[in-house]
Amino acid sequence: MRNSVKANELVTRLIPVIFSGIGFLFLMVSLIIFLESQSFKKSAVHTTAVIVGFQHTGDTDTGSRTIVEFTDTKQKTHRAALSFFSSTFREGDSLSVYYHSDDPTIARAEGQFVVLLSVFGGLGGLFFTIGAVILLVSLRRRLQKKRLLENGRMVDASIVEVAVNLHIRVNRSHPYYILCQWRDPSTGISYCFKSENLWFDPEPLLTALNLTALPVYIDETNPRKHYADTEKLKQAHGQMKY
Q1: What are phi and psi of 84, to 5 degrees?
Q2: What's the order of all strands across the beta sheet hosting 153-164?
Q3: Of residues 155, 147, 166, the one with CA closest to residue 193
Q4: Helix, strand or coil for residue 47?
Q5: What separation in angstroms does the CA of 121 have from each of 17, 18, 135, 156, 235?
Q6: Fewer CB within 10 Å: C terminus or N terminus of the chain?
């Protein structure tokens, strides 16, 4: 049980790092593709080719390579197989290509660069952004927690309920959180506070420790900025024998 809790906590910390890492890798691949394509274009000749056929793989009707024919600057006709295919391609269609000046059989479709850059750049940007946002939110929460523990006002908030966070799932498990309430005696306004996620059911521990309230550190200028202290529960859970 304790090992699974630690494993789940580790996974939640690693998720944004993994997302950012994958995104960064894809962005690097897209950068390499861009630089390689620019290098190829500098030494290549641009022309318009005509699609004359397709190379198919296996028994499928989907073409994996497009065969094109074009004329070079010396009016010599060449054929080249492009690693680029679209279901919209038809024989006789025109296609913008770049071919190597020393070896015209080495050719690439102009749209090929755009597709690869769009795929790797788009996915890379998406994954990196998701990971970065999660990391920034996590960092912001840690800084707020540190600030509240050092300068916040501590109040005892009555425990209302223990709930399951169905929005998060790791290793087929959902974390728990504690909802508690505090009424500001100076204004009469009641505030509801939510603890951080706990990868164990705190209900038995609350009963065993006879806890009916949690210490909550609040920002006096804005009590909605808070940190519900569950360290006592975590320590008790860590000392449990299974």
Answers
A1: -155, 125
A2: 190-194, 176-183, 153-164, 213-219, 222-228
A3: 155
A4: strand
A5: 18, 17, 21, 50, 45
A6: C
Instruction: Tell me the C-alpha distance between 107 and 103, whole Å.
Output: 9
| In the chain, domain spans | 12-123, 152-239
Give Cα separations from 128 to 11, 28, 106, 138 (angstroms): 17, 11, 34, 15
What confidence tens digit (pLDDT) does each residue in 101-121 have? 888 888 998 888 888 888 999
Residue 171 contacts residue 4 (beta carbons within 8 Å): yes
- The answer to whether 46 and 35 have CB atoms below 8 angstroms apart is no
| Beta bridge mates, 65 | 55
C-alpha to C-alpha distance for 90 and 103, rounded to whole angstroms: 26
Q: Read off the pLDDT of residues 165-187 as tens digits, 9 standing for 90 and up.
A: 999 888 888 999 999 999 999 89
How far apart are alpha carbons 38 and 190 in whole angstroms?
Answer: 62
Question: Is the pTM here over 0.70, yes or no?
Answer: no
DSSP secondary structure of 24-50: HHHHHHHHHHHHHHHHHHHHEEEEEEE
What is the dihedral angle through the alpha carbons of 29, 30, 36, 40, rounded to the nearest 10 degrees?
Answer: 140
Alpha carbons 67 and 77: distance in angstroms, whole number = 13
Contact assessment for residue 156 and residue 183, using Cβ atoms and an 8 Å cutoff: no
Q: At 184, list the tokens.
A: 């500001």
- Identify whether the C-beta of residue 66 lies closer than 8 Å to the C-beta of residue 95: yes
